[in-house]
Design a protein that fits this description.
- With about 400 residues, the protein is an alpha+beta fold.
- Among the domains are: about 90 residues, PDZ domain (Pdz3 Domain); about 180 residues, 2-enoyl-CoA Hydratase, Chain A, domain 1, CATH 3.90.226.
- Helix content is about 30%, strand content about 25%.
- The strands form 6 sheets. It has a 6-stranded mixed beta sheet with strand order 12-13-14-17-18-21, with helices on both faces. Strands 3, 15, 16, 19 and 20 form a 5-stranded antiparallel beta sheet that branches. Strands 8-7-9-10 form a 4-stranded antiparallel beta sheet, with helices on one face.
- Strand 7 and strand 8 form a beta hairpin.
- It is globular and about 80 Å long.
- Pfam families: PDZ_6, Peptidase_S41.
- Belongs to the peptidase S41A family.
- GO terms for molecular function: endopeptidase activity; serine-type peptidase activity.
- InterPro entries: ClpP/crotonase-like_dom_sf, PDZ, PDZ_6, PDZ_sf, Peptidase_S41A, Tail-specific_protease.
- It comes from Candidatus Wolfebacteria bacterium CG1_02_39_135.
Length: about 400
């Protein structure tokens, strides 16, 4: 889950409390002072602070390495100071060994903002890591990724000729992104396959869909929510008003392949299905500080029978909404175990257009479970096979209809 800058909360997992930006004369002055007057700076670390000790860090080592690069690196004349500095800041975040805590130079920060605005260039797939392996979290609807047959938890072994074993998620994204009309080849390994397959995908401009809905048999409303981005609350409001006039007997909420989005959006949407004041999720920080988020709104569908579809691509905000309805209303989950993205990131824009995204907390469900530990287990586990995809069958949706009909009075 992610929080985002002044908007504050973002789930998929987004910020930071510190701001770092050195440029121009200020950077040069700092560099000269570091060379002339190396210092041992005393830093209070969390673990050491609890033990009543101080940790001494000699920052002159940084400048020694800097000067060695300048003096001896064979292509030092091709590396500018700003690039070296950004590399150092990236390394600082990389030392956390948390793929969700990263530094974005200005160009990468711009791409990130394009992502959350809902339009960007690429293949249309949310990617992440699972057990140190780069995987597809969810292909987006009506995108090259979906049309190419990519599925949640597909392992990405190579992007073109680049092996992904040592790539971060952000590095892989840079390789996969590209100009509309160009081709990227992903080497994919799927559970059940004997060997990897190369899948050629033509890039396109990706416009992220938000939701679709329709009334199915027995006056059951089917809502497919694709993300929790900034437009989601308003679009859901529009849909909810129209659905309410249909007086549905039940609702199927489809969160399959929904990678998440803004926390505010998740809480807003949860409020349509719960009474005001019920716990949606808790945010737990390292200092034992805890913030509880509760439902608000009119609770229009709080008494309407509902079931939820989830799968391996349901992550972050999707898990918060599904978990909140499961724990508060005993709503049944149908499909496959969810992804398990349950940490909070905050994003802080920096002075020069760069930004930092850092993990600051864990999410805990109303029933006490931690999402990133286990994900969400379905009450009815139903899979989808390659044959189902080819035949355009959806046994998960069929099961949801069956379960919901049994609950409608």
């Amino acid at each position: 889950m992610q929080k985002i800058f002044k908007n504050r909360y973002f789930v998929i997992g987004i910020s930071i409390i510190i701001a770092v930006a050195l440029s121009g004369g200020g950077f040069y002055f700092g560099y000269q002072q570091g060379i002339k007057k190396p210092q041992t700076v005393v830093i209070r670390g969390v673990a050491n602070l609890e033990e009543g000790k101080l940790e001494a860090i000699d920052f002159s080592l940084f400048w020694d390495v800097w000067q060695t690069i300048k003096d001896k690196y064979v292509e030092a004349d091709k590396i500018d100071n700003q690039t070296l500095f950004y590399g150092a800041v990236s390394g600082l975040l990389g030392a956390l060994k948390d793929e969700n805590s990263v530094f974005f130079p200005p160009t990468d920060a711009q791409k990130f903002n394009e992502d959350i605005s809902g339009e960007f260039g690429g293949i249309g797939a949310e990617i992440g890591t699972r057990n140190n392996q780069l995987v597809i979290i969810a292909p987006l609807k009506n995108t090259p990724a979906e049309r190419a047959g990519l599925r949640a938890l597909d392992k990405i072994l190579k992007v073109d000729d680049t092996v992904t074993a040592n790539l971060t998620t952000d590095e892989a994204v840079k390789l996969i992104r590209g100009q509309k009309g160009t081709t990227v080849i992903l080497t994919i390994l799927r559970n059940g396959w004997d060997k990897p397959k190369e899948i050629s995908i033509i890039r396109d401009t990706i416009q992220v869909p938000t939701l679709d809905w329709e009334i199915k048999e027995n006056n059951i409303a089917y809502i497919h929510l694709y993300n929790f981005y900034e437009k989601a609350p308003f679009l859901f409001y529009q849909a909810a008003v129209e659905i309410a006039f249909k007086n549905p007997k039940g609702i199927i909420l489809d969160l399959r392949n929904n990678p998440g989005g803004f926390l505010d959006a998740a809480i807003n949407l949860t409020g349509w299905f719960l009474k005001p004041g019920q716990t949606v999720v808790s945010e737990e920080f390292r200092s034992d500080k805890k913030q509880v988020f509760t439902s608000y709104g009119n609770g229009l569908f709080k008494d309407v029978p509902i079931v939820i579809l989830i799968n391996e691509g349901s992550a972050s905000a999707s898990e918060i909404l599904a978990g909140a309805l499961r724990d508060n209303r005993s709503v049944k989950l149908i499909g496959k175990k969810s992804f398990g993205k349950g940490t909070v990131q905050e994003l802080e824009p920096l002075k020069d257009g760069s930004s930092i995204k850092i993990t600051v907390a864990h999410w805990r469900m109303p029933g006490g479970g931690l999402i990133e530990k286990n994900g969400l287990d379905p009450d009815y586990e139903v899979g989808l096979t390659d044959e189902d995809f080819k035949a355009n069958r959806d046994p998960q949706l069929e099961k949801a209809m069956e379960v919901l009909k049994s609950e409608i009075k």
